């Protein structure tokens, strides 16, 4: 059982949760993730630790409310307990002094990107950050990311902040400017990482992506998180979550991510109906 020290909304449908977890705070390395089980009968939710405080024995998780399990977890309150947190899982990010590193975060993908960027900066890399979101209200960890960046750029789909366009537009501008880029690290929606990788492949820029695939046990036993990398089957939970973006079969990954969409929608509809029944006066807020 893990005590919830804090939970709050930091952007529409994006929650920050601070848990008391001293061993995880001590053992976790940048790039690794945990498997969160909200309630005894809840499903396992893979989440990357966005931040930690080993002295306080706390870890910070950031998650987007997209389905039944994450919406249910978002309803928890400080002082309550998360049923279980398993980890740290996965391979840590290989962090050395690469030189100029472009760190690209899309939406809630900024959460796992932050600890890696911070460690890259501590290791002496020159950090160029590009954050992208649909609009200005959906950015998270802006101050934190800017504090560990030598250059900081933002893009929005609707032009309400930063460059009006996509992260690939800002990356293309950097490449066109002649900026030397030794490594690109991209974390966000699979479609974003696909197009970042397609762009960097044209210029032979090494690119790492962190995949968020369907996952069940997180230990390599179930095979649900399998992806094709360079024509070879890999398991995100034990072989990743980070892979060479130029080798990932993103089209296959996108199809697998949508496999259970219908069942997820049914589960969400049922959960919201049950939630409404529990509200005062059947949900009329009287």
From TrEMBL:
Note on cofactor: Binds 1 FAD per subunit.
Binding of FAD, residues: 62-64
One Pfam family it belongs to: DHODB_Fe-S_bind
Listed CDD domains: DHOD_e_trans_like1 (cd06219)
EC numbers for this chain: 1.18.1.2
PANTHER family in the record: DIHYDROOROTATE DEHYDROGENASE B (NAD(+)), ELECTRON TRANSFER SUBUNIT, DIHYDROOROTATE DEHYDROGENASE B (NAD(+)), ELECTRON TRANSFER SUBUNIT-RELATED
Protein name (database record): Ferredoxin--NADP+ reductase
Lineage: Bacteria, Pseudomonadati, Acidobacteriota, Holophagae, Thermotomaculales
The encoding gene: fpr
